[in-house]
Amino acid sequence: EEGSAAAQAADYAFGQFRYLHTLLFVHGAWSYERISIMVLYIFYKTAIAATTLFFFGFFSGFSGQQLFNIWIYTFYNAVFTALPIIVVAVLDQGLDADTLENIPKAYRSIISRGQLFGTRIFFRWIMNAVVHTAIVFFTAFWCLDTNGISFPNGQVHGLWMTSSTIFAICIVMVSFRLTFEMRSITWIHHFFFWGSLAVFILISIGLNVLPTFNPDLFAVIFAMWRNPQAWLTAILAGSLPLLLDLAIRGVQIELFPSYMDLLRERCLMREQYQKGEETFRFAPRHTRAQEKKHKEGVQVIKAKLGEAEGRKDSQSTTKKSSVDALVNTLLRWRDLTGAVLDATEEAADALVMDSGEGKTA
After folding, report:
1. How far is it, in rounded angstroms, from Cα 239 to Cα 319?
2. Is there a contact between 156 and 149 (Cβ–Cβ < 8 Å)?
3. Residue 356: left (phi > 0), alpha (psi -120 to 50), or beta?
4. Residue 142: how many other CB atoms lie within 10 Å
5. Interatomic CA distance for residues 172 and 333, integer angstroms
6. List of residues 6+ apart from 277 with CB closer than 8 A
7. How much is the pLDDT for 344?
8. What share of the chain in percent tops pLDDT 70?
């Protein structure tokens, strides 16, 4: 009875102590990564909206003139950008459960090295938001000059059409920026991602056709959709920040990968290996000599693996040779990674252990 009462009063309870391994290394790593992305992204998208209003103050003389329509701006955090991050914070998985359970070093790299959350990472996200906002606002504000004539009847854009275009760019940009942080994309992610954009369009149409309820935005959305200059501005101003982030992320992963990036690449290679696809992709940092050496090594290792699997059942000797120890090490390494990879410290330690040549105290 005391154990049951303690379990009911505890935040977490598990029947056997061995469940602690999965709770810590799998669910703990998932939760830490989800919470980190959620906190950083919420500050990021809030900073996008606040910095846009700050930049507009230089054009309005900080007079208190609103840039965005008050009704459509109310739904920014509550509806338009809330659903995708909720799904990511609940369902996203940085690595699969088998990898996290078998490689405890992944959990240590997530928690101890501050790869996902910290003061440096937080201010990097804030600066990222400031740069993105500057690109979007000044590109759109100068392309859609409020006094420029762009309609056949001689009408100008006006403040509300320019602000509606900037607001639409911000919504789409922050939504697609979240996809860069998604590690596992399912149909649920797709449903809420595209659903949030659909809700934004429906609410914009609703506020556009109510002249008495929201006169400032009446017929503005439809006029924006009919204007080619607004579409070109939205594509240009919205794609520049995303392409900049994508280029920086690609260079970082290619030249300065973290331990988690290497593990994700290994998992992807394992999936491709199981499907019979090519498992090795030469990056710019590989030379032709390394490429030739790698291909030769792969052929030799595959031949040894085939020989070992062929005589695995027939061989019954108690003492293994050094070649068998090497093959057994490669077999275990293949089962762990799903593909034949370059030599690592773990494989070297396993080779010493199999051959019985370990260091003595």
Report:
1. 63
2. yes
3. left
4. 11
5. 43
6. none
7. 42
8. 71
- What 3-state DSSP class applies to 149? strand
What is the CA 29 to chain-centroid distance, rounded?
15
% of the chain exceeding 90 in pLDDT? 14
Task: Collect all residues with Cβ–Cβ distance below 8 Å to 231 and sequence separation of at least 6.
Answer: 225
Torsion region of 334: left, alpha or beta (phi above 0 gives left; psi -120 to 50 gives alpha): alpha
- Mean predicted confidence (pLDDT) in 61-72: 82
Q: Whole-prediction pTM value? A: 0.70
pLDDT at 135: 92
User: For 102, what's the count of Cα atoms within 13 Å in the CB-facing half-sphere?
Assistant: 13
Which helix (H) or strand (E) segment holds residue 252: the answer is: helix 228-255
Region 120-142 average pLDDT: 90
pLDDT of residue 343: 40
- Work out whether the CA dihedral 204, 215, 170, 229 comes out positive or negative: positive
Cα 79 off chain centre by: 21
**Residue 149 main-chain phi, psi, to 5 deg:** -85, 125
Owner of token pair 């390394």: 290
Q: What is the pLDDT of residue 227?
A: 80
Partner residues linked to 156 by β-bridges: 149
Alpha carbon separation from 104 to 26, 109, 221, 292, 329 (Å, rounded)? 9, 9, 53, 33, 20
Q: And the tokens for 226? A: 């009919």
Secondary structure of residue 300 in the 3-state scheme: helix
Three-state helix/strand/coil letters over 200-219: HHHHHHHHHCCCCCCHHHCC
Residue 60: pLDDT band by 50, 70, 90 thresholds? confident
CB neighbourhood size of 307 (10 A): 13
Contact indicator for 178, 41 with CB cutoff of 8 Å: yes
- How many helices (H) does the chain have, and how many strands (E)? 16, 0
The contacts of residue 4 (CB under 8 Å, 6+ apart) are: none
Neighbours of 348 (CB within 10 A): 11
- Please state the length of the chain: 361
Q: 298: pLDDT confidence band, cut at 50, 70 and 90?
A: low
Q: What is residue 312's predicted lDDT score, i.e. its pLDDT?
A: 58
Say if residue 131's pLDDT is above 90: yes
